[in-house]
Amino acid sequence: MSTILQELESQIAGLKTSTSKSNTGVVRECSDGVAKIEGLSDVMLNELIEFPNGLFGLALNLEETEVGCVLLGDFTEVTEGTEVKTTGRLLEVPVGKGLLGRVVNVLGQPVDGKGPIKSDVMYPVEKLAPGIIKRRSVNQPVQTGIMAIDAMVPIGRGQRELIIGDRATGKTTIALDTIINNANMNRDNEGKEGFRPIYSIYVAVGQKNSNVARCVTVLEEHGALPYTIIVTAPASESAPNQFLAPFSGASMGEWFMDNGMDALIVFDDLSKHAVAYRQVSLVLKRPSGREAYPGDVFYLHSRLLERSARVNEANGGGSLTALPVIETQAGDVSAYIPTNVISITDGQIYLETDLFYQGVRPAISVGLSVSRVGSAAQIKAIKQVAGKIKGDLAQYRELAAFAQFGSDLDAKTKAQLDRGQRIVEVFKQKNYSPLPVEQQVAMLWTIQNGYFDEVPVPRVKEYQDKFNEFLITRKEAVLKGIWDKKQIDKDVEGLLRAAADEFKSTWK
Amino acid sequence: MKLTKEVRKVSKELFQASFTDGLLDPGKVRGFAAQIVAGKPRHYVDILKNYHRLIRLELNKRHAVVESATALSGDTSETVLRDLKSKYGEGLTTDFRVNPDLIGGLRIRVGSDVWDGTVRGRLDTLDQQLATV
Asked: Are A11 and B123 within 8 A, CB to CB?
């Protein structure tokens, strides 16, 4: 109690002598969450502007006689003539492990009702991406737990892999699966030497509140929330908040990277982010370009995604992997924002509506999905078994198209079709049930070595599930061997073959 | 107010021509305004409005408002005036106002700069600091 009194006394003593200097301005216009302010002669770009009643704004347009400022909060009480002042600060958000397990808004304030956030470190929302000297190439994998992705479109730590597809094709599910898989790995390997956990940040931009609540519930149910930060700027938030949310999330992720840890950030989704930025730009009266987007919408996304990187050992060796999501309209990948983001990222996972409704889920289009740098990060075991899978599947799709026209097929073509059908079945996976990498390797090895060839196609999934269960419950040594050695050597292969033979002989 | 490029350009040119030795020249301002009203060029009302705005902002930059809780004595006013002139140079207009809400101390505004040494200002700061604790 006495300390509080002393603090108050010192504050009151300070009152007698201090004179504060501030740079002020007066609101001339306020509409759509944007205020035009006269004065503020010392204002900096992106500086926080203080309004009465604890409201803050961000100076985005510095014009000859006025300042265009977006308001971050309830702007209904801002009127013409309101006096504002500069703060000398840039927009900052709290960062650190104290945010894990929490749902926060764009300013890093909690919105989950779990009390205040314990964090004493702040990071600016707009931050320059790490330069060339600090970086190194991608060399460690991010396991998504989705067999089709880990085998054919591998993602490395520090990579930017776009998830693109029409509405309701499973884009968010892939992102959540990845978060859940990494949380599972973090939990299972906590404290083990050499294991580097991946912390996740899920940024929801312009989404329905119900969707965000569903995501939180899914992550909570699967035990992934303690390793995840959720930044939310739902559709009910103002456009400036939606436009700033990915940058806030990136700052939170950068803290992990700067401190030698690995983080994964999901931007769900950048189409709505571009729309929010378009609205901000239009009400700021910036010139509009194609589809009324401002000229710097490419820079908006490129500077955001450049912040994900893999830094070298001298700088801590941390990484920030980005999984931006883009929603296409009727499968049109050549629209403005999709082409922009495709060109920025290091590859894309393309989800097809047709495949989704055929029951191929995740509906990944093998032909259009690509990972430009991820193969360097694949573990050897996956490379050994998945090397030919993408080619096999592409051949199958081509042959399947031709086979529709004729019934008489030669034996080789028929074998390829049969194998392809089985690969497609094996790659089908339920949502929110990611597979650990050692189980993926075992399954891919089994299909490559023809153990599925005699299984009827409708029963492939059943065979796979049972074999997986068999390995987990009775042949743990096989899975442990794959996980420890990270490759299939003669010993592991022998054990795997024995297990596969044993299971095949008992399966009916 | 939506202004055309032409309006902005003309009013800015008028504004730039309204200075003599770096100080706003009232004679020139009156002269330009009279010419515009007489000549009625295209968008002349908008030009005059924007010209007025630019002049107002410029005058504000060179205008000091000194507020105090009670009327200042002659000595204090002179000291304040002298200090302001030494900082901002000649051509500064001043306006002394009494505002009992300030409780005590002085608040001086020159353009967008505000020096606040009032008890009210300090109490407001303390209020904000306590609110964040």
From this structure: no
